[in-house]
Amino acid sequence: MEDIHFCQSCGMPLNADKLKGTENNGIKSNDYCKYCYVNSDFKNPEMNLDDMKNVVKTYMEKRKLPSYMIQKAVNILPALKRWKSKQQ
């Protein structure tokens, strides 16, 4: 069984190379998706955890996903690499 990595910024499954962000040498990142990370930089470096929670929630609501899934996705964000180090 293949391990599925998740974006360490937004939590999106990185189950295809086309979804992965890139390092500045062009190599695909196993940590971040293309929506969050390009050329070794976050697309929205000023974004904070609350902003990301709102983005994830809004995106999932537009896709009409069940509320329990949305809540679970929002709840895991603080444990992801990008946000974990910013908590006290």
Q: What descriptive keywords fit this protein?
A:
88 residues; alpha+beta; two-stranded antiparallel sheet; two-stranded antiparallel ribbon; 4 strands; 32% helix; globular; Zn_ribbon_dom_put; Putative zinc ribbon domain-containing protein
Task: Give an overview of the whole structure.
The chain has 88 residues and is of the alpha+beta class. Helices cover 32% and strands 15% of the residues. The chain has 3 helices and 4 strands, in the order ββββααα. It has helices at 49-62, 67-76, 81-84; strands at 20-22, 28-33, 37-38, 41-42. It has a two-stranded antiparallel ribbon with strand order 1-2. A two-stranded antiparallel ribbon has the order 3-4. A hairpin with a 5-residue loop joins strand 1 and strand 2. Helix 1 runs antiparallel to helix 2. The radius of gyration is 13 Å and the shape is globular. The termini are far apart. The model has no long low-confidence stretch (mean pLDDT 94).
Distance between the ends: 36 Å
Q: List low-pLDDT spans.
A: none
Strand content: 5-15%
Largest sheet features: 2 strands, antiparallel
Order of helices and strands: EEEEHHH
What is the oligomeric state here?
Answer: single chain
What's the count of strands?
4
Q: Which structural class fits the helix and strand makeup?
A: alpha+beta
Helix content: 25-40%
Over all CA atoms, what is the radius of gyration? Answer: 13 Å
Strand order of the biggest β-sheet: 1-2
Supply the number of helical segments: 3
CA-based shape: globular
What's the mean pLDDT score? 94
Organism: Flavobacterium ranwuense
Pfam families: Zn_ribbon_2
InterPro entries: Zn_ribbon_dom_put
Protein name: Putative zinc ribbon domain-containing protein
